[in-house]
């Protein structure tokens, strides 16, 4: 490894070694402050010694490999592999550097587990335990597990995810021990956030329609306000592009023309184009004129008009008049 250089100097030398095109792509993912600091370091670097360049590239490669090992098998697995490849001391140096800044999320070791296998581990647990585990999973994986739970437990678990805020490290570690698996990373002593309305919305957007309906009907009884908030978040105006042409035409028959013009005033070109493709040329031209004639409008008025249209879409979906595709069981048969 290159010795006597700061982290910023090493980063600058690495960017110089990678060349301007690759470095430009990396800059796109950095904050303005980081870009300024690195630019200054690059400008101050004169001639780069060959041994420094080779050492930094090697160090960077080792860190990337170690991080991948940690993600796939945990700290102990990464240390074992690195010791065999690089020797004991170098492996320890790399692991210590990574674990000083790298925080692996709780339950990271089960993120690559097949949902059906994971379900066997957790389906007999208390709903709060299931909710905690699901809240830390990727939405697709969480949706698969939530869909596979018995209907009478789905709404209970969904509600617990929605009201979940912060969980202490002690509770997380206890749940991980219940799964009889070794911790895959050093968990920070800070409280970690998971769950909440947005989390359950992302999950429900991926479950099949039957599961969603079962959960929402139960939530409407248990907690009407929460159910309404989840409905509001589940389908946003920009999601209109996901509807098929027949559904959009059905929606347009129900929407007030003034609401449509106001809603499209703040919409993306993709949404506007999708809507106008499903109107007659005369109607589309009249809509464009109305939008132009409208002039400046308040953002709140635009959002209210968009929400009224979203409410119409959900009403039509609930009545079975249109289909909003979601989850893995909503393939449409013509």
Textual characterization of the structure:
There is one protein chain. The protein has 334 residues and is mainly α. Helix content is 68%, strand content 1%. The chain has 19 helices and two strands. The chain has helices at 7-18, 20-27, 32-44, 50-73, 75-86, 88-101, 115-122, 127-135, 139-148, 151-163, 169-178, 197-204, 209-222, 224-234, 245-254, 257-265, 269-277, 281-294, 299-318, and strands at residues 166-167, 192-193. Helix 13 runs antiparallel to helix 14 (224-234). It starts with 6 loop residues before the first helix and ends in a 16-residue tail after the last helix.
Termini gap: 62 Å
Low-confidence stretches: 182-193, 327-334
What is the H/E string?
HHHHHHHHHHEHEHHHHHHHH
Helical amount among residues, as a percent range? Answer: 55-70%
**What structural class do helix, strand and pairing data support?**
mainly alpha
User: In this structure, how is the largest beta sheet organized?
Assistant: 2 strands, antiparallel
Q: What's the average pLDDT?
A: 76
How many distinct beta strands? 2
Percent strand: under 5%
């Amino acid at each position: 490894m290159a010795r006597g250089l700061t982290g910023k100097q090493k980063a600058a030398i690495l960017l110089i070694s990678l060349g301007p095109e690759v470095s430009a792509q990396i800059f796109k993912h950095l904050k303005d402050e980081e870009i300024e600091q690195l630019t200054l370091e690059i400008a101050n670097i004169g001639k780069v010694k060959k041994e420094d360049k080779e050492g930094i590239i090697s160090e960077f490669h080792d860190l990337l490999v170690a991080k991948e090992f940690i993600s796939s098998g945990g700290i102990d697995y990464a240390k074992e592999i690195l010791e065999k490849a690089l020797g004991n001391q170098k492996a320890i140096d790399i692991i210590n550097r990574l674990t000083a800044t790298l925080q692996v999320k709780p339950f990271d070791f089960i993120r690559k587990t097949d949902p059906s296998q994971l379900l066997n581990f957790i389906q007999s647990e208390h709903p709060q335990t299931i909710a905690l585990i699901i809240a830390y999973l990727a939405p697709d994986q969480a949706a698969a597990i939530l869909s596979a739970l018995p209907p009478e437990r789905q709404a209970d678990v969904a509600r617990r995810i929605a009201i979940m805020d912060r969980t202490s490290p002690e509770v997380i570690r206890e749940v991980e021990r219940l799964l009889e698996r070794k911790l895959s990373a050093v968990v920070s002593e800070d409280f970690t956030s998971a769950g909440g309305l947005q989390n359950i919305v992302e999950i429900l957007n991926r479950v099949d329609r039957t599961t969603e309906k079962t959960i929402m009907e139960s939530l409407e009884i248990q907690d009407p306000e929460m159910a309404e908030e989840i409905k509001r978040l589940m389908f946003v105006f920009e999601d209109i592009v996901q509807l098929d042409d027949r559904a959009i035409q059905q929606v347009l028959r129900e929407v007030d023309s003034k609401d449509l013009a106001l809603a499209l005033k703040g919409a993306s070109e993709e949404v506007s184009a999708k809507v106008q493709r499903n109107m007659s040329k005369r109607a589309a031209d009249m809509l464009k004129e109305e939008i132009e004639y409208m002039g400046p409008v308040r953002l709140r008025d635009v959002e209210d008009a968009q929400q009224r249209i979203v409410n119409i879409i959900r009403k039509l979906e609930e009545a079975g008049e249109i289909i909003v595709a979601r989850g893995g069981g909503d393939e449409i048969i013509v």
